[in-house]
Fold:
Amino acid sequence: QVQLVESGGGLVQPGGSLTLSCNASRSILLVYFMGWFRQAPGKERELVASFFNTGSTSYADSVKGRFTLSRDTVNNTLNLEMSSLKPEDTAVYYCKWEHQYWGQGTQVTVSS
Structure:
C-alpha cells in the first residue's frame, strides 16, 4: 500500500508559475514509474508528465517546455514545476505510483 499526498495547487494568473508536490509514503527509489495526470471538467484524465527510475522523463506535447519534473529522494517527493501557465492548464492534478496508486488530487486554476 502506498499513500500519495499532493500539494501546491491554487489560483494563478495566466503566465504565472506553480510547483506541485507529490509526497509518497514509501521510498521513491523503489518505484519504476511515477506520473502526474490532470483532469479538467468534462474531460478525461490525461497524462501530463512521467518519471522513470532510469532517470528519464517524458511530457505531453501541450506542456513541453513549460513543465518540469524533479525528484527529491530524501523526502520521497516528486515535484512538477509549472511555468507560463495557461487557462487551459486548469484542472485537478493527480499523482500516480506505478499503475496502481493515486493521490487525492490538487486543484490548479489559471485565471485572471
Q: What stands out?
A: The mean pLDDT is 96. The chain is about 0% helix and 50% strand.
